[in-house]
Amino acid sequence: MLIVAGTVTFDPSHQERVIEGATRVADSTRLEDGCLSYEFFADLAGPGRLHVFEEWEEEHHLIAHLETPHLADFRVVLQSAGLQTREINRYFVSGVVPN
After folding, report:
1. What 8-state DSSP symbol labels residue 38?
2. Residues 3-17: pLDDT tens digits?
3. Domain boundary assignment for the chain
4. 81 exposed, middle or buried (CB, 10 Å; 0-12, 13-18, 19+)?
5. Residue 99, helix vs strand vs coil
6. What is the pTM of this model?
7. Residue 9: how many CB atoms within 10 A of its CB?
């Protein structure tokens, strides 16, 4: 399993448009092969910041996702919204233990 998590920041005046774009890309991505979850969370304390959380069965599923038109469209939305930072990491999980 592969987890992708991080944060993107952008001009807060574009919050509504970015959330709309995030909703579109998430809806499409959840239908992709190997996608276990794909979520965005608006930061309640910081307008202009979204937290990203994704779970993928295998890395090749994520690599295929990175080439999709819906992700390319979302990148355009972020750029036009004054993307400031993009700090997203991949975490390779060797096992999961229920808490």
Report:
1. E
2. 999 999 999 999 999
3. 2-92
4. buried
5. coil
6. 0.92
7. 19
